[in-house]
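In response to a reviewer's request, we include the raw inputs and outputs for one of the modeled complexes. The two entities were modeled together in a single run.
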Amino acid sequence: MSKDTIYPGQEHSFSDIDETGLGAVDAVPDDRPPASLFGEAWRQLRRRPIFWISAALILLSLLMALFPQLFTSADPRYCVLKHSLEAPGPGHPFGFDKQGCDIYARTIYGARASVSVGVLSMLLSVTIGVIMGSIAGYRGGWADSLLSRVTDIFFAIPFVLAAIVIMQIFKESRTIWTVVIVISLFGWPQIARICRSAVIEAKQEEYVTAARALGSGGWANMLRHILPNAAAPIIVYATVALGSYIVTEATLSFLGIGLPPTIVSWGADIASARSVLRQAPQVLFFPAGALAMTVLGFIMMGDVVRDALDPKARK
Amino acid sequence: MLQAETSSQAVGAQEAAEVQEQAQDHVQEQANGADLKPLLEVKDLEVAFQSSTGTVPAVRKANFSIYPGQTIAIVGESGSGKSTVAAAVIGLLPGTGKVTGGQILFDGKDITHCTRKEYEDLRGSKIGLVPQDPMSNLNPVWSIGFQVREALVANNIAKGSEAHKLAIQMLEHAGLPDAERRSKQYPHEFSGGMRQRALIGIGLACHPKLLIADEPTSALDVTVQKRILDHLENLTSELGTAVMFITHDLGLAAERASYLVVMHRGRVVESGPSLEILQNPRHPYTKRLVQAAPSLSSQRLSAGVEAAQSAHEVSDSSSEQSDSDEVLRAENLVKVFDIRGAKGEKQELRAVDDVSFSIRRGTTLAIVGESGSGKSTVANILLGLLKATSGEVYYEGVPSSTLSAADMFKLRRKMQPVFQNPYGSLDPMMSIYRCIEEPLRIHKIGTREEREKRVAELLDLVSLPRSAMRRYPGELSGGQRQRVAIARALALNPEIVVLDEAVSALDVLVQAQILQLLTDLQAELNLSYLFITHDLAVVRQSADEVIVMRDGKMVESGSCEDLFANPQEDYTRDLIAAIPGGSIPLWSGN
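The model returned the following structure tokens for the whole complex.
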């Protein structure tokens, strides 16, 4: 079959000129706000009802933690035994626990311990994790091998079990900080791993090479180019982790080895409600419900933030 | 400032005479086949994608046909809808895509709205597909032989040991040496070219009547591309298979296909016999495409800004007086990498082996080579990103190895890179303003206001609106990003710009625009360029001196014109011959 044969319907033909030129296609967008990663993420978050629900839950628990007086004038530590297990009444919407303390006041004041342990442990483990992960990822070589093995060792230790053992040591001198340190001690390896892989991915990008060719030094590059680009997965994990750290604190307090008994906490209240579960289930219900709502708030927030920050979901 | 339109001057006028001559030699026969029926007929095809903001048309009223045994090509830039047409024909439209109008007739039968089962019968046995990217289209966990057998078994051609034998035969046909042994290997043991051969084997395994080849060789080196396409041509003419090429490369399309369909933004803007289209394009878009297509017949681009040339005449004339005004000289560069051999033993890879050259002020030196030739390693050594194992780089006569860290930092101001990937070379977290400002800030130049003024100037220089400052890289097109990368490279008033495949990832029209911009800037600012590329046609348009590299060694060097007119080495000749459509004279503009 000759290459020069022209078949019917394949004669030279051309269309009329299109209504819009190429210039219109390759124009720089001018009509919308600049689309930075976080700006776009915010625009997307705004449209999600789940974001607003979880934000409201988080805001509520933060308010409870910071200003419990806004919600109740009762003192959670003022207990009158004659009120023991009394049903809800005027001024005491949730009733009383076994010791005769106001459950509503205890639930409100319990937020402070949970939220502060959650936030502080998150900050501490993100700090340790990001430092370890970014050194391992950026340096590579023996530094990476060493730090990754240390991370692996911490991974291999069962979290709650190890926490129980260590908290046992501080039996007499427990404060919020001991709980925070113990949780962070076993929480950072996850973040270190996520950070390491994100850093390794970002450091191979051409914009990092371009910055090096400009004469920009190693750690300056790290702070300016690599970490901001590695931040998204860390932010997502940290939000979810905050929720799970609050659960861990409650677990430890429930077991009686978390916060000292002088601090009002949901975990301790749940533990003491166990013995009266049959007679007065509301004693368990309120602190447990508050804990669940707070944790749910953070975990849902982590979920929507991940959807908003995931570049694959966006384009 | 950007004179994209002036690129018409680029294509030499002297070629026009040759075009005429060729056109007369080329006798067109009118087929008398009234009984001939097209194998595939696409009538007023419309495809649209559903998105959150409504329907987006991807193909608008496309018409074309393919006759049995004929090779046609659909040409267009990215986003022109060419791949969507192919996907519609084979019923593999992604996700939200839907045929919203028109007809696709295959062998006289309407296949526009086939059921899934009907499509499955059609695919493989009647219509074969060679996908675009050989690196990701073979399943890494199965052997090559298994994947060819899969095609045979799925279409009920053969089973068991018979299928095994047929698969080996197919691979042999596809030009894979030692097919018996090779069929037991896994994709990662194959080179890109061999994988593409395996994919061609799979595509042709069931002797389809139509083979759709979607950018089958765009990821491969030119010499490999030529061999594969030659082989594909032989195979399909032997089997009588019709081929539908999807490509962005006008030269390749014209060389391989007898009928061309040019698509632009979802519409077929021009169609007809390939030579006719190349030599007598009628639609303005096709005209621009043909003009922009770099080919061997094109000449060195000249700066479109004549005023700028005269403004720099003073400095130019002074630099031309001394012919040896070299900005940069590399002497006997060697770079050895330690790698692991097949059995884990230590091996040495001489990535760069005794390479020497010099760049004169205000000129362009091109380093040409295929992947693995060591050309990018040379660029990284020059930029100080890699240390040479031996050899020396002299910058204005000063050996760079004797420089202190502080001097090296100063030197970096004078030497700036532009990288290949417009999507990777800008930090997505930074606004365009911060991207371009970064070099100024690192080198502590100017106050905040001065830097802001400089960024605005640079944006003017690369013909981007000043409002682009507030944008983020993700909002710009590939060509625009590359212009930002060039602006960033120019921020420090460098003397040398290292362009590492800086235009390779761009569509041909944008590529022509950027090349013109670079040429204008060179004339205006008396820049020296080191151009690293695999594309000889681009070299012809933009380089003064050329070095050809292969396996780390310099194969040939010389002035651009000499090298193209009179290549001394076989390898250079191969490279030049492998440029698709290199020998086809093009329409050169009126």
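As requested, we also summarize the result in words. The longest strand of chain A covers residues 13-14. The longest helix of chain A spans residues 103-139.
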